[in-house]
Every structure is written in structure tokens, then in C-alpha cells.
Amino acid sequence: MSQQPSGWYDDPSNADMLRYWDGVSWTNHTAPKKSPTLSQSTIGLPQQGTPGQAPADRTGAATPTTPMQQGTGWPSASQAPQQQTPQGYYQQAPANAQWMHNIKTTADGVPLASWGKRVAAWLIDGVLLGIVGGAVAWAATPALQQTMSRLFDAASRGDQAAATQLQSELIGPSVQFGIVLWLVVTAYCLVFWTTTGQTLGKMALGISVRRAAEPGPLPLGTALLRRVVPLAGQFLSLLTLIDYLWPLWDDKRQALHDKVASTQVVEGKQPRKQP
Q: pTM score, two decimals?
């Protein structure tokens, strides 16, 4: 069978899309068969103009003049679309050339999830983990429960000295709570990423995570690496919390950033420098 010439064909992975075949392999250029901005699809209509002459689209690729091919699967890079009896020609680059540039894909042509869907999935996961993970972490840190209970009692009695002391005692249990919560979140992510590539939030939005180079659930090492950045952010948040709580037990009432800069916060205004 001879090699199929370059042109626009049915996308083997999506029946509603077209994908450009460069004569050797499938490219990343895709476009809807029908643009929402067009009142009528041009698919299947005869080409206008001089027979055998195809205008170029805005991307520089030749306008498709080859028959559509219904694919049943994703071919390898060296496998061309099979030839078949012509069923008509395209009048112009389908759905206008700019559509190809608006659709971001992976290297193998899979459309990327939008930022909005990623945020929505993150919010869903955040609510679920906030409830379930928070309950697990709270149950796993009885010291935090006891200290918080004593702190509320001191506050209700108006015992400021006891309340201040108990606030300083919250540091250790709070750190334990944060560690347990992080472990719960990490376990949740690792289980879903390495089995389906979808957390519950991603399932709800119809998106998934995969390696950039290949499809499929994440290997364990990749999934762990993906948790490094959130972990770093949580450590920074914890450091910020400790920094602002430090004056509670420091004799000079300095936060950590005060100690680094050799500063102290005092009552009242500061005198202006004399010119």
C-alpha cells in the first residue's frame, strides 16, 4: 500500500476532531470538524476554485484535498492513514486555522486540561481532604485536643496568663497535626495517581494526570516527586506560623524575622530623624 499524502484526516483518537498528517506521521495540529463560529460545516462539500489547486491555510500547511479516513485506533508514528475511495474535499482549513493554535496538546496529541478545570478539581479535593483528612489528623493528635480544650477554658475564665502559656504549648501538637494531615493527603494522591491518574476531583471534571512523555498512571517515583512542591509550600507555611508565634515565649518578644534583622516592635510612634 502506498503512503498516504499529507492532509487533514479524521483524528483516530477523537471522532469529533481532525488531525493533520504530514505524510510520515501524525502531527500535534488538531481542529474541530465544525467551528462554533461557522453556521455550517464545510466537511463533505466540493472544493471551489481551480480543480486540483488547494489554498494554503494560515499555518502554511496545504488545505486538505485528500479523503477522510475513519480510524479505529491511534497508529504508530510510521503508520500512515489507509487510502480509501474519495468521499469529497474540504473547501478550506477546517474550523479556520486559528483553532489549531488554540488547542494545546501533549507531544502525542492528547488535549491538555484547562486551568479552570484543574482549579475546580483542586477545590473538590481540598474540601474532601479538609473534612476527612482533618478528622483523621484531629483524632491522631490527642495532645492538640487537650491543649485546645484547656485554652478555651482559660479564655472563658479570663485567665490571660494561662491562655498565653497554653498558646505556646500549641506549637508541638500543631506540628504533629500538620504532619498527619500531610501524610493523609499524600497517601490519597499516591493511591489515585498510581492507579487511575485521577483523584476524585479530577474524576468529577473528567481530567487526569500522566507523564509528559507517555500516557498511563504515574509511577510511584514520579508521584512522590510531584508532591515535593506542595510539601515545600507547607513547610514554608509552617515556618511562617512559627515565626509569628515566636514572640509568645521569647523574652524580648521578637519574632524570627525580628531576630534576623535585630528589630523589636514597641508601643507608640517613633521619633522622626532630624534633618
A: 0.52
